[in-house]
Amino acid sequence: MLLAVLAASLIPLLMLMTTVVPSADDFAFGAAARTAFAATGSVPAALRAAGRMTLDVYRSWQGSFSAVFLMALTPAVFGDGFYALTPVLMLLSLLGGTFCLVTALLRRVFRLPRYAALCTAALLSLFTLQLMPAPEQGLYWYNGALYYTFYYGLALSAFALALSLLQEGGVWRSGLLCLLCLVLGGGNFITALNVSLLFVSATLLLALLRRPVWRRLLLPTLFLLAAFALSAAAPGNALRQSHMEHRPDALQAILSSFVHSSRDLVGFFSLPVLGMLLLMALLFWHALPEGGFSFPCPLLVSLYSYCLYSALYTPTLYAMGVKGASRVTDLLFYSYLLLLTLNLLYWIGWLRRPRKPAPLSLFSALIATLLCLGCCAAFVLAGHGFSSLMALGVLRSGEAAAFRQATQARLLILEDASIRDAVLAPYPCQPYVFYHDDIRPDPDDPDNQSMARFYGKDSVRLGS
Question: What pTM does this model have?
Answer without folding.
Answer: 0.94
